[in-house]
Amino acid sequence: MDFAFKNMLDIAKMTKESCLDNFTILDYLFDYVNGKSQSNGQPWEGCTHLYIPVLANAHWFAVEINFAESTVYVYDPDKSCLTQGQLQKFLESVCYFIPLLAKSVNILVQDKVQVQRVDGTVK
User: Fold this and answer.
1) Where are the beta strands (DSSP E) in the chain?
2) Which molecular function terms from Gene Ontology are attached (predicted)?
3) N or C end of the chain: which has fewer CB within 10 A?
């Protein structure tokens, strides 16, 4: 998973909120999920976890999306950089689009994805 994917989720959410035509962006996201994007060689079908590097307020952390648990796990060694509210706000686009995109390739995910901070490192 590359960093550009999170940016595309943010752009898709902004265009949805501003009522602009976002079919091109959604097409790009569906191509990404199906492995047809130039920056992603593997389709999501059959995946159980998804990992995304995230940059927020000049601070990097890792996100693990566990499809079976419908949970976004946040691995951040410096928890003082973002409050839980800031983290929730920053990951809104992930929580909104991941169920839609996962379901497009028959991955079962709840419509409501929760965000949970994790102590330790990515498994």
Assistant:
1) 49-56, 59-66, 71-75, 114-118
2) peptidase activity
3) C
